[in-house]
Amino acid sequence: MDISERKDLERNKFRFLREKNNLLERKSVVANVRLFIESVLQKETEKYLAIYWPLRNEVDIRCLNDKYSLALPRCKKNKQLLFCSWDDKPLTKDFEGIPAPDSSNFLSFKEISLIFVPCLSVDKKFTRLGYGGGYFDILRQNKSWKDIPCIGVLTSNCVSKELLTRAEWDIPLSGIITEKEILV
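The chain above was modelled as a monomer; its predicted structure follows.
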């Protein structure tokens, strides 16, 4: 079985587990994300927090816009990921069909303080299992973006007890936040 087939099996397993998450667990993850941000950004920041548009029962952290300036990703052709400031303007679907801000609001790495990413699963070495698009890994191959902490957001039942299949291009996360722990 090749890497792609092993990752597909893992994706199916953790999609099933994620469907078992309940609203209380997801809200507890959001509370821990807030605790982490407050501990790291001990003062107001002019930089953006990069988050994601939640899909398929992912933890929804969009409520952070009540206190912080947020950026959402916009997927482009050739696996390019741009972060754009999220304002009151209507969102449009990006290359992958995900709601995203207009790319004219593109932000540089200097304007982002933290990146929060959704995860199907993460293992103890912070290897992330996503949907297989590779957007976050490609972005983080750039040294400037790699230096920005990239934190996985998920519920604890999706933290793998075994090491996940890792391809040579997979870049481990800086940490994870679940309803039970903050490991950064």
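DSSP finds four helices and twelve strands in the chain.
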